Amino acid sequence: MNTIINNIAIEKAKTSKINEVDFDNLKFGHVFSDHMLECNYKGGKWQTPVVKPYQPIVLDPAAKIFHYGQSVFEGMKAYKDVDEKVWLFRPLENFKRLNISSKRLAIPELPESYFMDGLKTLLEVDKDWIPKKAGSSLYIRPFIFASGNGFHASPADEYKFIICTAPSGAYFAGEVRVLIEEKYSRSANGGVGFAKAGGNYAGQFYPTQLAIEKGYQQVIWTDDNTHEYIEEAGAMNIFVRINDTLVTGPTSDRILDGITRKSIIELAKSENIPVEVRKITVSEVVEAAKNGSLKEMFGAGTAAVISPISGFGYKNEDYELPKFDDTYASYLKKRITDIQTNKAADPFGWRYEV
Ligand code: PLP
Ligand code: COI
């Protein structure tokens, strides 16, 4: 039966796949919930979104997404607490960043109500898909791409905004070792590195495959100009702890302004953990690993949450990080996930009830 919530029409799936899902053994982004949100841009205007059964999308072979890669996306999570209340984490930051990314890719910006009401309606319809198990959540993937066709290399006249969700466990299955990149670049000044553009990820796959063949899970990108500065990893921002100080690089044209990153900076400051936002050179990290002052390295992102890095490779040498219990990574991960899942007070106002 069709219903309407938040002015959004809902076409319910005839059957649910939920009983086929093993919620105790969830991988990341592997199974998809019963419904999706779809909103089309045509005639110079975003049309009212609809929620419908999760299904394939039919596209013209000349759709510009295939030829010119005009696409942007976001990554968010929904959490369910012990009382079955549903929470998002700083969703307006994702909305704003989606439009920042869209603007850079010449994609028309989306109205806030379409994003927020669409998301809330979708979560209401698929709330049974939000895992309750610690460490699991409903990963949310809003994305926009050029569905309008034409071989002329110019922006499309039609787009689709879609939100799909996937009940998910941890992004990394085991330990995370990273390779500090010396040759390839993820982004450059004036480019699209700060945008969550699909092409940024495609461009990383080949160098990351080479790193995986050598036993690493992620590449740590360095600046394209000199390869002397640590920028970010393929799916997360990077923090290092030198003695007691937590350090992360500044965001720029080339680096994604991660919501987890900025939350960790605020959280750490509020807990009197010394934090520095400054350029980090590869040579200081290598030197600190050699003299023992490099205590921790971790990645931060929605999918990755806070992922400790156990070692890194650079110029054919491997460096190990010390192993100890009371790390900043484990402390901050607990603090942030407790706020996200409504297990602790949220003095920052980050949590958003759906
Ligand atoms: N950097 C890159 C390249 C990413 O893909 C992500 C993931 O979204 C992040 C950083 C972390 O950003 P956020 O914390 O907003 O998820
Ligand atoms: C996220 O953390 O939400 C991301 O978008 C990273 C992605 C590569 C899984």
TrEMBL record:
One of its GO terms (biological process) is L-valine biosynthetic process. Its cofactor is pyridoxal 5'-phosphate. Pathway: Amino-acid biosynthesis; L-valine biosynthesis; L-valine from pyruvate: step 4/4; Amino-acid biosynthesis; L-leucine biosynthesis; L-leucine from 3-methyl-2-oxobutanoate: step 4/4; Amino-acid biosynthesis; L-isoleucine biosynthesis; L-isoleucine from 2-oxobutanoate: step 4/4. Pfam families: Aminotran_4. It catalyses: L-valine + 2-oxoglutarate = 3-methyl-2-oxobutanoate + L-glutamate; L-leucine + 2-oxoglutarate = 4-methyl-2-oxopentanoate + L-glutamate; L-isoleucine + 2-oxoglutarate = (S)-3-methyl-2-oxopentanoate + L-glutamate. Its EC number is 2.6.1.42. GO terms for molecular function: L-isoleucine-2-oxoglutarate transaminase activity; L-leucine-2-oxoglutarate transaminase activity; L-valine-2-oxoglutarate transaminase activity. InterPro entries: Aminotrans_IV (IPR001544), Aminotrans_IV_CS (IPR018300), Aminotransferase-like (IPR036038), B_amino_transII (IPR005786), BCAT-like_C (IPR043132), BCAT-like_N (IPR043131), BCAT_family (IPR033939). It is an enzyme of class 2 (transferase). Keywords: Amino-acid biosynthesis, Aminotransferase, Branched-chain amino acid biosynthesis, Pyridoxal phosphate, Transferase. Gene3D superfamilies: 3.30.470.10, D-amino Acid Aminotransferase, subunit A, domain 2 (3.20.10.10). The modification N6-(pyridoxal phosphate)lysine is found at K196. PROSITE patterns: AA_TRANSFER_CLASS_4. Belongs to the class-IV pyridoxal-phosphate-dependent aminotransferase family. Acts on leucine, isoleucine and valine. This is Branched-chain-amino-acid aminotransferase. It comes from Algibacter luteus.
